[in-house]
Design a protein that fits this description.
14 helices; about 20% strand; six-stranded antiparallel sheet; alpha+beta
């Protein structure tokens, strides 16, 4: 998705519309096309009034004529009948952004993926900018005829995303936050958490908050605390207002001291074991369809092949020993078998030495 977005932004920067039209003209032409799209008709006066509604400077008749002529040169068939303008046929997208065939066909992939988070403020802004400046309308975002992405969403995602955005703002402001949290284990009571938030991670369709928890009069820097954002009660957090606890913290210093960039390096998902346990090497045998799956999509970045036959493949990964390993095996059912002895596992350092010898 990032690749497609990069290509798209570069095309926008170098689009023919950017080269030919000035900023005011781009907005006028986008409004004009929107006013006439879908077999609608409008007089010159109605179109100019639409410009005024968008805070554009009033234009002369000659300027209006130049806008019409430029669009005609770009292949838009604009006709006038009984003082009403209308578009005959389709509007060629090439008047805004020049793309080759491959890019035209991959653009819907970008739209579909971005539209999964359509409630996010930045996505709303992006869609508005593309419509105002480049004529890409809402219908272009909704078309999933040829490509559709279905990702399971939490039933309360309408609350989760705004809350995640609020927490990110507080991270940037280096605020110590507090909130009421309901642990996933339903038999546990709600608890009030005080935390210096450091990162939000999206994993397997769920949003997680990681930070350093304040308890017993100090920050617990032994490990990051994991919070499922959808378990924060009331969908709100607030800056700490307790005497004796600083309202702010040094985000950069704490982020670096916790080595967040590498913190999840040996994590299979988001769970970090207690007691600073080392990552261990695990051998897993995959057969049938699972063999093809893990060959084409690694289950972890540390995955290396150990043995392969026509019927199966054995791979080795180096991860933390947590319940996420059991979840992984459960996904593949009888087509995955763990081969190592959990009591005699190779540590991460031993694994690195082994890889070094092999290379």
């Amino acid at each position: 998705m990032v690749h497609y977005l990069y290509i798209f932004v570069e095309k926008i920067k170098n689009s023919s519309m950017t080269k030919i039209y000035n900023s005011e003209q781009k907005r006028r032409i986008s409004i004009l096309l929107k006013k006439l799209s879908g077999n609608k008709r409008a007089t010159r006066k109605e179109i100019i009034e639409a410009y005024t509604d968008k805070n554009l400077i009033a234009i002369e008749r000659s300027q209006f004529g130049r806008d019409i002529n430029l669009l005609k040169e770009k292949g838009v068939s604009i006709l006038c009948e009984k003082n009403q303008y209308f578009i005959e046929g389709e509007i060629p997208k090439s008047i805004f952004i020049d793309m080759d065939e491959k890019e035209k066909f991959t653009l819907p992939i970008l739209f579909n993926l971005v539209n999964l988070q359509k409630e996010v403020d930045s996505v709303i802004w992006l869609k508005d900018e593309l419509e105002t400046k480049y004529g890409i309308l809402e219908d272009d975002w909704q078309d999933d005829t040829y490509f559709s992405s279905t990702i399971p969403h939490w039933k309360d995602e309408i609350h989760v995303i705004p809350l995640a955005i609020d927490i990110i703002k507080r991270m940037k402001n280096e605020e110590v936050i507090t909130f009421e949290y309901k642990p996933v284990n339903t038999y546990l009571n709600n608890e009030v958490v005080i935390m210096a938030p450091l990162q939000i991670r999206l994993y397997d369709g769920r949003y997680y908050l990681f930070g350093v928890e304040y308890k017993n009069g100090a920050y617990d820097k032994k490990k990051l605390r994991l919070i499922e954002i959808d378990q924060i009660r009331g969908w709100k957090v607030s800056q700490i207002q307790v005497e004796g606890i600083e309202k702010n913290f040094d985000y950069t210093d704490l982020y670096n001291s916790m080595d967040v960039k590498r913190y999840f390096y040996n994590c299979l998902g988001v769970v970090i074991p207690d007691n600073n346990k080392e990552a261990v090497s695990i051998k897993i045998k995959f057969c049938d369809w699972a063999k093809s799956y893990v060959k084409n999509k690694k289950i972890h970045h540390s995955q290396i092949p150990i043995e392969e036959t026509h019927d199966y493949i054995i791979v080795q990964i180096c991860v933390y020993e947590t319940y996420e390993v059991d979840f992984l095996l459960g996904r593949f059912r009888e087509y995955a078998e763990r081969l190592d002895n959990p009591n005699g596992l190779m540590t991460y350092n031993e694994y690195c030495r082994m890889i070094k010898k092999q290379n």
